[in-house]
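In practice, a research group might receive sequence data for several interacting partners and want a quick structural hypothesis before committing to experiments. The following worked case mirrors that situation: the sequences arrive first, and a predicted assembly follows.
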Amino acid sequence: MSDLAFEHGEEHPPHPFLQHHFEDLGQQHEASTLGMWAFLCTEILFFGGVLLAYWVYRIMYPAAWALGAEQQNTLAGGTNTLVLIVSSLTMALAVRSAQLNNRRGTVLMLILTLIFGTMFLGIKSYEYHAHWMEGLFPGAHWHWQPKDPAISALTPKVQLFMVFYWGLTGLHALHMVIGVGLLLYILARAWRGDFHAEYYAPVEVMGLYWHFVDIVWIFLFPFLYLIPHVGAHHVG
Amino acid sequence: MTTTTLHDVRFIEPAKTRNYLNEDYGFFSWVLTRDHKRIAILYLISVTIMFMVGGFFAMMMRLELLTPEGDLLTSDTYNKFFTLHGIVMIFFFLIPSIPAVLGNFILPLQLGAKDLAFPRINLLSWYLYIIGASFGTYVIISGGVDTGWTFYTPFSTQYSNTHVFATTLGAFIVGFSSILTGLNFIVTTHRMRAPGLTWFRLPLNVWALYATSIVMLLATPVLGITLIMLMIERVLHVGIFDPALGGDPLLYQHMFWFYSHPAVYIMILPAMGVASDVIAAFTRKRIFGYKFVAFSSLAIAFLGFLVWAHHMFVAGISVYSAMIFAFLSFFVAVPSAIKVFNWTATMYRASVSWQTPMLYAMGFIGLFTIGGVTGLFLASLGLDVHVTDTYFVVAHFHYVMVGGAVMAYMAGLHYWWPKITGRMYPEWWARLAALLIFVGFNLTFFPQFILGYLGMPRRYHAYAPEFQVLNVLSTAGASVLAVGYALPLVYLLLSLKLGRPAGPNPWGAVGLEWTTSSPPPKENFHETPVVTWEAYDYRGMMKAMGETQNV
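A structural hypothesis for the assembly, expressed as tokens:
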């Protein structure tokens, strides 16, 4: 990226991370952040599509949805919510440290974010494992039945709920895995001392992504774990 | 820093200058390039191949429909051919055509930028396109798919035993290619404009590409997630869209058209942008009502998101929602008509020159108008119920997509060909091809309006004998059209060797892309341009030229 940068100016050498097609670091920074914001707009519509389908069926089958949410481990989900919120704080502090030329602070905060992100994925895997063992995986492996045989007709709809559970949390977990990978890359660059007050766009862009993934979970948690029963169980 | 003046006509022999084509040589200098101009060429080659594939299926269908009996193709094969025709033409030709080929090449030049904001993402988008197209090719070779390009459930999830999964995966992947192109265009337009190039000094092509990019960015992900749900349903059979298990097939249609109606505007908006630039260049006038034309692009992009259910009037949606969607659909006519009237008004009392790009642009205006007005027929509930799933619908959307988008693509390709290659195409042959395409197109598709109105249903390989005359006309037209499309392939390729050198500005057009050499150098401009003129400032240019002559 910097092979052409020397062509730029005779007056002062260009910054090593300034790509050749930008005039200056300010323009490059603004392009990077706008690019991430635009990408997040795409992401909102991506999650939005499946959330729409989720809501259509939630309104059609409220009892099955409540029963499905009952199968979730609220303690694990709640803990994960807390873990992600704290990781967003450390991520924001990492950006702030980079802005303040604090290399040690940046590295430390990125490591903490990485730990919280991994912790989230660990807890999520534990939940996935439990669901799998209980037969709550849709398709051929499904063997879950409600304890009360009177409502066994709800089973296919609970399976539909679990499709959305696995789909939404799976999509979110995929974003987390990508996020952890990106964090490792940003951490390596921070360790090397790439970032400082004039050049920290990659950390900021990483932060935008991380906060977005966090916010998605803030929606997913109540949508999938905390559905109140509407009246008594009835076969929907 | 000197101002690049409009009348600066340096004549440069393309092969003897340093430009993006001879900067590097070798296979890897192309497939690993980050230069938007080379990526545009990669896209040009790819979409041309896909256009020929899609055209082959179209030709086979027209041949089958020459006679009322199903004698050339079996009904199963015919189902696969119209499906593949639709998928290849929409996902692999029309959607990337103008944005990823012409837009990729021209947008940074029109903005006075050295490249798009994210060159590597631009290359990635081409690779995603190729991966998606590879899935498409795999499907074609291994036996095809028969769901129609719309993949309607529950047929696609429960019953079809063709390659639905691979096809939808290919469409999903190619969707990300267009998302990334849109993202790149939006950021580039916001952040990389040359000094002095304010929003209202932008060519209308940039406004149109910007509006297109918004649609790409916001609609495509919904198709992506819908196709994922379709794939999950097809593999696991858990009832996402299966009514037997509690799912709702209508939900699929809603989500599919939430993308696929705006996708029509992904095809037509950039066509409008090209038409605006070409009409200004060949009338030597500023586009009449510049700001109206600019904002009408954004209005079309916005309204496009509110009309999807007009594809579902007979699918069982409520009458009240159908009425609202019909009403909203009429609104799209307003910004579209603003454009058509303003292009026409631009030509009024102008010195119009009839070079090939202008011929295509004229064809575009006329055919798009017919396509648009028949769209209003179809947005009207009563008439739509009468002609749903007939050839009337087929004729309507081909007038918009082929008569509109492909005509404008051809206009743009000829208009910017000298800039892309540094050489002129042969004008006589190009005019002949434009004429053949116009005549062939109308002969192919106008009879289909009548066929549809008379009740001939689409998507059947056999039909009632009384429809034969009009079908023969249509097939004859398709043959003319095929010749018309084959000609440019020959003469444009030959022009790479034989064409006379174009010089930086063969049309005497206003716009930053014409201030640099042809083909442009790798970094686009020898020095960063500073813009001091309005968009399409032909008056200023003529004045400047007059002063030069007086000296």
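Before designing any experiment, note the following. The radius of gyration of chain A is 22 Å. Helices of chain A lie at 25-60, 62-70, 74-99, 103-133, 155-192, 201-225.
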